[in-house]
TrEMBL record:
The active site is at K204. The modification N6-(pyridoxal phosphate)lysine is found at K204. This is dTDP-4-amino-4,6-dideoxygalactose transaminase. GO terms for biological process: polysaccharide biosynthetic process. Keywords: Pyridoxal phosphate. InterPro entries: DegT/StrS_aminotransferase, PyrdxlP-dep_Trfase, PyrdxlP-dep_Trfase_major, PyrdxlP-dep_Trfase_small. It comes from Jiangella alba.
Amino acid sequence: MSRLAVDGGAPVRTRPFPTVLDPAGRTFGAEERAAVLEVLDGAVLNSSAGGPWLGDLEATMAGLHGVPHAVASSSGTAALHLAVAGIDPEPGDEIVTTPLTDFGTIAAILAQNAVPVFADVDPLTGNLDPASVEACLSPRTRAILVVHLFGAAAPVVELRALADRAGVALIEDCAQAYLARPAPGAPPVGTYGAAGCFSLQQYKHVTAGDGGLCLTGDAALAERMRLFADKAWPRDQGRFHQFLALNYRMTNLTAAVAAVQLRRLPDVVRRRRRLAARLLAAAGDLPGVHLPERADLHAWWVLPLVVDGGNRRWAEALTAEGVPAHAGWLQSPVYLYPALAERRTYGTSGFPLTSPPARRDWTYRRGLCPVAERLIDDTLVVLPWNENYTDADVDDIATALVKVTAGG
Protein backbone atom coordinates (compact mmCIF):
# COMPACT_ATOMS: atom_id res chain seq x y z
CA MET A 1 0.00 0.00 0.00
CA SER A 2 1.30 3.47 -0.90
CA ARG A 3 2.41 6.00 1.66
CA LEU A 4 -0.32 8.04 3.35
CA ALA A 5 -1.01 11.41 1.77
CA VAL A 6 -0.63 13.07 5.16
CA ASP A 7 2.96 11.78 5.11
CA GLY A 8 3.66 12.94 1.56
CA GLY A 9 2.11 10.17 -0.53
CA ALA A 10 -0.42 10.51 -3.33
CA PRO A 11 -4.03 10.93 -2.14
CA VAL A 12 -6.75 8.45 -3.02
CA ARG A 13 -8.93 11.23 -4.42
CA THR A 14 -8.53 14.82 -5.58
CA ARG A 15 -12.05 15.76 -6.75
CA PRO A 16 -14.74 16.91 -4.28
CA PHE A 17 -17.73 14.87 -3.16
CA PRO A 18 -21.32 16.09 -3.52
CA THR A 19 -22.45 17.91 -0.38
CA VAL A 20 -25.73 19.24 1.00
CA LEU A 21 -24.45 22.76 0.27
CA ASP A 22 -24.38 22.35 -3.51
CA PRO A 23 -26.98 21.26 -6.08
CA ALA A 24 -25.15 18.00 -6.78
CA GLY A 25 -25.82 16.89 -3.22
CA ARG A 26 -29.50 17.79 -2.97
CA THR A 27 -32.72 16.45 -4.48
CA PHE A 28 -34.43 19.69 -5.54
CA GLY A 29 -36.31 19.61 -8.83
CA ALA A 30 -39.15 21.02 -10.88
CA GLU A 31 -41.75 20.09 -8.26
CA GLU A 32 -40.18 22.31 -5.58
CA ARG A 33 -39.91 25.22 -8.00
CA ALA A 34 -43.54 24.81 -9.05
CA ALA A 35 -44.67 24.67 -5.41
CA VAL A 36 -42.81 27.88 -4.54
CA LEU A 37 -44.24 29.67 -7.54
CA GLU A 38 -47.73 28.50 -6.60
CA VAL A 39 -47.34 30.08 -3.18
CA LEU A 40 -45.92 33.30 -4.60
CA ASP A 41 -48.63 33.53 -7.23
CA GLY A 42 -51.26 33.06 -4.52
CA ALA A 43 -49.73 35.95 -2.49
CA VAL A 44 -50.32 34.21 0.88
CA LEU A 45 -46.96 33.37 2.40
CA ASN A 46 -48.19 33.02 5.98
CA SER A 47 -49.66 29.56 6.54
CA SER A 48 -52.02 30.77 9.28
CA ALA A 49 -53.85 32.81 6.63
CA GLY A 50 -54.66 29.80 4.47
CA GLY A 51 -53.22 27.68 1.69
CA PRO A 52 -52.94 23.91 1.23
CA TRP A 53 -49.25 23.28 1.77
CA LEU A 54 -49.05 23.08 5.56
CA GLY A 55 -51.83 20.50 5.73
CA ASP A 56 -50.21 18.57 2.87
CA LEU A 57 -46.88 18.48 4.72
CA GLU A 58 -48.36 17.41 8.05
CA ALA A 59 -50.52 14.70 6.46
CA THR A 60 -47.57 13.32 4.49
CA MET A 61 -45.38 13.21 7.61
CA ALA A 62 -48.05 11.50 9.69
CA GLY A 63 -48.73 9.00 6.92
CA LEU A 64 -45.06 8.08 6.51
CA HIS A 65 -44.91 7.16 10.19
CA GLY A 66 -48.35 5.67 10.72
CA VAL A 67 -49.40 8.14 13.41
CA PRO A 68 -52.50 10.36 13.49
CA HIS A 69 -50.92 13.77 14.19
CA ALA A 70 -48.05 15.86 12.82
CA VAL A 71 -47.42 19.49 13.81
CA ALA A 72 -45.17 21.77 11.75
CA SER A 73 -42.97 24.55 13.14
CA SER A 74 -40.28 26.98 12.09
CA SER A 75 -37.22 24.87 12.99
CA GLY A 76 -36.10 21.61 14.54
CA THR A 77 -35.29 23.49 17.73
CA ALA A 78 -38.81 24.89 17.71
CA ALA A 79 -40.19 21.36 17.28
CA LEU A 80 -38.28 20.24 20.36
CA HIS A 81 -39.57 23.25 22.30
CA LEU A 82 -43.12 22.36 21.26
CA ALA A 83 -42.64 18.86 22.64
CA VAL A 84 -41.16 20.03 25.94
CA ALA A 85 -43.81 22.73 26.31
CA GLY A 86 -46.41 20.15 25.42
CA ILE A 87 -45.66 18.09 28.53
CA ASP A 88 -45.73 21.35 30.55
CA PRO A 89 -42.97 20.87 33.15
CA GLU A 90 -42.80 22.94 36.30
CA PRO A 91 -39.77 25.24 36.70
CA GLY A 92 -36.88 23.16 37.99
CA ASP A 93 -38.27 19.85 36.75
CA GLU A 94 -35.58 17.64 35.24
CA ILE A 95 -35.29 16.19 31.75
CA VAL A 96 -32.68 13.48 31.27
CA THR A 97 -30.87 13.72 27.95
CA THR A 98 -27.58 13.20 26.15
CA PRO A 99 -24.39 15.29 26.10
CA LEU A 100 -23.86 14.39 22.41
CA THR A 101 -26.35 16.57 20.55
CA ASP A 102 -26.93 19.92 18.93
CA PHE A 103 -27.56 22.64 21.48
CA GLY A 104 -31.11 22.98 20.18
CA THR A 105 -31.99 19.89 22.21
CA ILE A 106 -30.82 21.62 25.37
CA ALA A 107 -32.23 25.04 24.48
CA ALA A 108 -35.70 23.52 24.31
CA ILE A 109 -35.33 22.28 27.89
CA LEU A 110 -33.93 25.51 29.30
CA ALA A 111 -36.43 27.66 27.42
CA GLN A 112 -39.23 25.90 29.30
CA ASN A 113 -37.40 26.46 32.61
CA ALA A 114 -36.52 22.80 33.07
CA VAL A 115 -33.11 21.40 34.02
CA PRO A 116 -31.10 19.19 31.64
CA VAL A 117 -29.62 16.15 33.39
CA PHE A 118 -26.97 14.35 31.37
CA ALA A 119 -26.71 10.58 31.09
CA ASP A 120 -23.75 8.87 29.47
CA VAL A 121 -23.74 7.06 26.16
CA ASP A 122 -22.83 3.81 24.45
CA PRO A 123 -19.14 3.82 23.46
CA LEU A 124 -19.82 2.43 19.96
CA THR A 125 -22.96 4.34 18.89
CA GLY A 126 -22.93 7.51 20.99
CA ASN A 127 -26.60 6.91 21.79
CA LEU A 128 -27.96 7.08 25.34
CA ASP A 129 -27.09 4.20 27.66
CA PRO A 130 -30.34 3.11 29.40
CA ALA A 131 -28.47 2.12 32.58
CA SER A 132 -26.98 5.60 32.84
CA VAL A 133 -30.39 7.15 32.16
CA GLU A 134 -31.94 5.10 34.94
CA ALA A 135 -29.23 6.24 37.36
CA CYS A 136 -30.12 9.88 36.54
CA LEU A 137 -33.81 9.59 37.39
CA SER A 138 -35.08 11.46 40.44
CA PRO A 139 -38.43 12.52 41.92
CA ARG A 140 -38.10 15.72 39.84
CA THR A 141 -37.67 13.91 36.52
CA ARG A 142 -40.39 14.87 34.07
CA ALA A 143 -39.12 13.37 30.83
CA ILE A 144 -36.37 11.51 29.00
CA LEU A 145 -35.30 13.27 25.81
CA VAL A 146 -33.47 10.78 23.60
CA VAL A 147 -31.48 11.75 20.49
CA HIS A 148 -31.13 9.23 17.68
CA LEU A 149 -27.53 10.10 16.84
CA PHE A 150 -26.02 10.17 13.35
CA GLY A 151 -28.93 8.19 11.87
CA ALA A 152 -28.89 5.21 14.24
CA ALA A 153 -31.93 4.43 16.36
CA ALA A 154 -31.20 4.72 20.07
CA PRO A 155 -32.40 1.86 22.34
CA VAL A 156 -35.82 3.44 22.29
CA VAL A 157 -37.78 0.33 23.25
CA GLU A 158 -35.77 0.02 26.46
CA LEU A 159 -36.00 3.76 27.11
CA ARG A 160 -39.75 3.74 26.57
CA ALA A 161 -40.09 0.91 29.08
CA LEU A 162 -37.90 2.81 31.53
CA ALA A 163 -39.95 5.98 31.08
CA ASP A 164 -43.19 4.06 31.60
CA ARG A 165 -41.89 2.48 34.82
CA ALA A 166 -40.82 5.89 36.10
CA GLY A 167 -44.09 7.53 35.05
CA VAL A 168 -42.37 10.14 32.87
CA ALA A 169 -42.67 11.16 29.22
CA LEU A 170 -40.32 10.05 26.46
CA ILE A 171 -39.49 12.65 23.80
CA GLU A 172 -37.52 11.69 20.68
CA ASP A 173 -35.14 13.98 18.82
CA CYS A 174 -35.09 12.40 15.35
CA ALA A 175 -33.43 15.26 13.47
CA GLN A 176 -30.62 13.00 12.23
CA ALA A 177 -32.56 9.76 11.88
CA TYR A 178 -35.46 9.96 9.44
CA LEU A 179 -36.99 6.47 8.99
CA ALA A 180 -34.38 4.75 11.14
CA ARG A 181 -35.62 1.65 12.96
CA PRO A 182 -34.39 -0.04 16.14
CA ALA A 183 -34.97 -3.55 14.73
CA PRO A 184 -36.16 -5.23 11.52
CA GLY A 185 -39.89 -4.74 11.10
CA ALA A 186 -40.11 -2.29 14.01
CA PRO A 187 -41.86 1.07 13.64
CA PRO A 188 -39.58 3.99 12.69
CA VAL A 189 -38.18 6.34 15.29
CA GLY A 190 -40.41 9.20 16.28
CA THR A 191 -43.29 6.88 17.12
CA TYR A 192 -42.15 5.52 20.50
CA GLY A 193 -42.52 8.56 22.73
CA ALA A 194 -45.09 11.16 23.60
CA ALA A 195 -43.65 13.16 20.70
CA GLY A 196 -41.06 12.66 17.97
CA CYS A 197 -39.26 15.77 16.70
CA PHE A 198 -37.67 16.30 13.28
CA SER A 199 -35.68 19.01 11.54
CA LEU A 200 -35.80 20.32 7.96
CA GLN A 201 -32.59 22.32 8.32
CA GLN A 202 -30.10 22.52 5.42
CA TYR A 203 -27.95 19.58 6.55
CA LYS A 204 -30.74 17.07 7.10
CA HIS A 205 -31.93 14.23 4.84
CA VAL A 206 -34.52 16.53 3.26
CA THR A 207 -34.62 20.27 3.69
CA ALA A 208 -36.58 23.46 3.33
CA GLY A 209 -33.66 25.52 4.66
CA ASP A 210 -35.20 25.36 8.11
CA GLY A 211 -38.37 23.96 9.59
CA GLY A 212 -39.52 21.38 12.10
CA LEU A 213 -42.10 18.65 12.55
CA CYS A 214 -43.51 16.89 15.61
CA LEU A 215 -45.29 13.54 15.57
CA THR A 216 -47.64 12.29 18.25
CA GLY A 217 -50.45 9.82 18.76
CA ASP A 218 -51.99 11.99 21.49
CA ALA A 219 -54.65 14.37 20.18
CA ALA A 220 -54.51 16.62 23.26
CA LEU A 221 -50.73 16.90 23.03
CA ALA A 222 -50.97 17.67 19.30
CA GLU A 223 -53.45 20.47 20.04
CA ARG A 224 -51.26 21.95 22.78
CA MET A 225 -48.19 21.87 20.51
CA ARG A 226 -50.16 23.44 17.67
CA LEU A 227 -51.35 26.19 19.99
CA PHE A 228 -47.85 26.76 21.39
CA ALA A 229 -46.55 27.32 17.84
CA ASP A 230 -49.12 30.11 17.37
CA LYS A 231 -48.85 32.06 20.67
CA ALA A 232 -51.59 29.87 22.18
CA TRP A 233 -54.16 31.58 19.97
CA PRO A 234 -57.23 29.42 19.25
CA ARG A 235 -58.08 31.16 15.99
CA ASP A 236 -61.43 29.42 15.58
CA GLN A 237 -62.62 30.80 18.94
CA GLY A 238 -61.51 34.42 18.99
CA ARG A 239 -58.49 36.64 19.53
CA PHE A 240 -57.21 35.67 22.95
CA HIS A 241 -54.23 33.65 24.21
CA GLN A 242 -54.67 30.65 26.47
CA PHE A 243 -51.18 30.44 27.99
CA LEU A 244 -47.64 31.75 27.55
CA ALA A 245 -46.38 30.60 24.17
CA LEU A 246 -44.30 31.73 21.22
CA ASN A 247 -44.59 32.18 17.47
CA TYR A 248 -43.09 29.10 15.82
CA ARG A 249 -45.32 29.11 12.74
CA MET A 250 -44.00 27.61 9.52
CA THR A 251 -44.50 29.75 6.42
CA ASN A 252 -46.27 28.55 3.30
CA LEU A 253 -43.04 28.89 1.33
CA THR A 254 -41.28 26.54 3.73
CA ALA A 255 -44.22 24.15 3.83
CA ALA A 256 -44.41 24.00 0.04
CA VAL A 257 -40.75 23.05 -0.35
CA ALA A 258 -40.89 20.68 2.63
CA ALA A 259 -44.02 18.89 1.40
CA VAL A 260 -42.37 18.04 -1.90
CA GLN A 261 -39.08 17.16 -0.23
CA LEU A 262 -40.82 14.85 2.22
CA ARG A 263 -42.28 12.82 -0.63
CA ARG A 264 -38.70 12.23 -1.76
CA LEU A 265 -37.59 11.06 1.70
CA PRO A 266 -38.10 7.27 1.35
CA ASP A 267 -35.97 7.23 -1.79
CA VAL A 268 -33.31 9.43 -0.19
CA VAL A 269 -32.99 7.00 2.73
CA ARG A 270 -33.09 3.96 0.42
CA ARG A 271 -30.23 5.34 -1.66
CA ARG A 272 -28.16 6.21 1.39
CA ARG A 273 -28.67 2.69 2.71
CA ARG A 274 -27.70 1.05 -0.57
CA LEU A 275 -24.48 3.05 -0.71
CA ALA A 276 -23.75 2.30 2.95
CA ALA A 277 -24.21 -1.43 2.31
CA ARG A 278 -21.60 -1.15 -0.44
CA LEU A 279 -19.19 0.54 1.95
CA LEU A 280 -19.77 -2.03 4.70
CA ALA A 281 -19.11 -4.85 2.24
CA ALA A 282 -15.77 -3.28 1.35
CA ALA A 283 -14.61 -1.91 4.70
CA GLY A 284 -16.94 -3.17 7.41
CA ASP A 285 -14.44 -5.46 9.13
CA LEU A 286 -11.30 -3.33 9.32
CA PRO A 287 -9.25 -3.89 12.47
CA GLY A 288 -9.56 -1.15 15.05
CA VAL A 289 -12.52 0.50 13.29
CA HIS A 290 -16.18 0.12 14.30
CA LEU A 291 -18.84 0.98 11.71
CA PRO A 292 -22.61 0.68 12.11
CA GLU A 293 -23.54 -2.97 11.59
CA ARG A 294 -26.91 -2.73 9.80
CA ALA A 295 -27.14 -0.64 6.65
CA ASP A 296 -30.87 -1.37 6.39
CA LEU A 297 -31.84 0.03 9.82
CA HIS A 298 -29.56 3.07 9.98
CA ALA A 299 -30.63 6.32 8.29
CA TRP A 300 -27.02 7.34 7.44
CA TRP A 301 -27.18 11.05 8.19
CA VAL A 302 -23.39 10.84 8.39
CA LEU A 303 -20.91 7.98 8.44
CA PRO A 304 -19.65 7.55 12.03
CA LEU A 305 -16.46 5.63 12.76
CA VAL A 306 -15.31 4.63 16.22
CA VAL A 307 -11.58 3.96 16.25
CA ASP A 308 -9.34 2.59 18.98
CA GLY A 309 -7.90 6.05 19.59
CA GLY A 310 -6.20 9.02 17.97
CA ASN A 311 -9.28 10.33 16.20
CA ARG A 312 -7.60 13.59 15.23
CA ARG A 313 -4.82 11.73 13.43
CA TRP A 314 -7.47 9.61 11.71
CA ALA A 315 -9.43 12.66 10.57
CA GLU A 316 -6.30 14.40 9.35
CA ALA A 317 -5.19 11.31 7.43
CA LEU A 318 -8.57 10.70 5.79
CA THR A 319 -8.96 14.35 4.84
CA ALA A 320 -5.49 14.30 3.25
CA GLU A 321 -6.64 11.31 1.18
CA GLY A 322 -9.46 13.47 -0.20
CA VAL A 323 -12.18 12.12 2.11
CA PRO A 324 -13.37 14.93 4.44
CA ALA A 325 -13.46 13.75 8.06
CA HIS A 326 -14.09 15.42 11.40
CA ALA A 327 -12.74 14.29 14.76
CA GLY A 328 -15.19 14.10 17.62
CA TRP A 329 -18.10 15.84 15.81
CA LEU A 330 -18.53 18.30 18.72
CA GLN A 331 -15.89 20.50 20.32
CA SER A 332 -17.01 19.28 23.72
CA PRO A 333 -20.03 17.70 25.39
CA VAL A 334 -22.83 20.23 25.46
CA TYR A 335 -22.65 20.51 29.26
CA LEU A 336 -19.26 22.22 28.92
CA TYR A 337 -20.65 25.01 26.73
CA PRO A 338 -20.66 28.38 28.58
CA ALA A 339 -24.46 28.46 28.59
CA LEU A 340 -24.42 25.55 31.05
CA ALA A 341 -20.94 25.46 32.59
CA GLU A 342 -21.16 29.17 33.41
CA ARG A 343 -24.97 29.26 33.83
CA ARG A 344 -25.51 31.93 31.20
CA THR A 345 -29.27 31.62 31.06
CA TYR A 346 -31.49 34.48 32.30
CA GLY A 347 -29.37 37.49 33.20
CA THR A 348 -27.02 36.56 36.03
CA SER A 349 -29.63 34.46 37.85
CA GLY A 350 -28.52 31.05 36.64
CA PHE A 351 -32.22 30.18 36.52
CA PRO A 352 -33.44 27.42 36.38
CA LEU A 353 -30.18 25.69 37.33
CA THR A 354 -30.09 27.02 40.87
CA SER A 355 -32.13 26.18 43.96
CA PRO A 356 -34.92 27.14 43.92
CA PRO A 357 -36.57 26.15 41.58
CA ALA A 358 -34.13 23.25 41.08
CA ARG A 359 -33.74 20.63 43.77
CA ARG A 360 -30.08 21.63 44.00
CA ASP A 361 -27.57 23.93 42.31
CA TRP A 362 -26.54 22.23 39.11
CA THR A 363 -22.86 22.34 38.18
CA TYR A 364 -21.64 20.80 34.94
CA ARG A 365 -17.97 19.84 34.79
CA ARG A 366 -15.61 17.69 32.79
CA GLY A 367 -15.84 14.06 33.90
CA LEU A 368 -19.63 14.06 34.12
CA CYS A 369 -20.02 11.65 31.18
CA PRO A 370 -16.65 9.99 30.59
CA VAL A 371 -17.75 7.80 27.68
CA ALA A 372 -19.10 10.79 25.76
CA GLU A 373 -15.94 12.74 26.52
CA ARG A 374 -13.72 9.92 25.21
CA LEU A 375 -15.72 9.71 22.00
CA ILE A 376 -15.17 13.42 21.36
CA ASP A 377 -11.56 13.55 22.50
CA ASP A 378 -10.20 10.26 21.19
CA THR A 379 -12.36 7.72 19.34
CA LEU A 380 -15.12 9.27 17.18
CA VAL A 381 -14.58 10.25 13.54
CA VAL A 382 -17.45 11.50 11.37
CA LEU A 383 -17.58 11.53 7.57
CA PRO A 384 -20.30 13.21 5.49
CA TRP A 385 -22.74 10.95 3.63
CA ASN A 386 -25.03 11.71 0.71
CA GLU A 387 -27.64 9.94 -1.38
CA ASN A 388 -26.07 11.36 -4.56
CA TYR A 389 -22.73 9.64 -4.09
CA THR A 390 -21.84 7.31 -6.93
CA ASP A 391 -20.53 3.80 -6.45
CA ALA A 392 -17.11 5.18 -7.39
CA ASP A 393 -17.40 7.79 -4.61
CA VAL A 394 -18.12 5.05 -2.08
CA ASP A 395 -15.28 2.93 -3.40
CA ASP A 396 -12.89 5.87 -2.90
CA ILE A 397 -14.06 6.23 0.71
CA ALA A 398 -13.53 2.51 1.28
CA THR A 399 -10.08 2.65 -0.31
CA ALA A 400 -9.11 5.58 1.91
CA LEU A 401 -10.34 3.77 5.02
CA VAL A 402 -8.37 0.66 4.13
CA LYS A 403 -5.28 2.73 3.38
CA VAL A 404 -5.44 4.74 6.62
CA THR A 405 -6.17 1.63 8.66
CA ALA A 406 -3.09 -0.05 7.23
CA GLY A 407 -1.03 3.05 7.99
CA GLY A 408 0.25 3.46 4.44
